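mind reviewing this fold:
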Amino acid sequence: MRQRLAKTLGAVIGIVVLALGFRPSAEGLPQEGALAPAIGGQEWINSPPLASEALRGRVVLVEFWTYG
């Protein structure tokens, strides 16, 4: 019984060590404190085009959607 428990525990520890070693890198992901990229597009529907500088210090909700 103890041998089986020891083998199971060893396997679990091995899996955890492997999982921690294969974490994806954070390169290319948004970083806390980084500036948002400029918002661009073809057409603004309900307002004139806005620049990031005009929105600085405000809470902004951006919703992306498409037809299709």
In short: DSSP finds two helices and no strands in the chain. The helical segments are 2-21, 52-55. Residues 2-21 form the longest helix (20 residues).
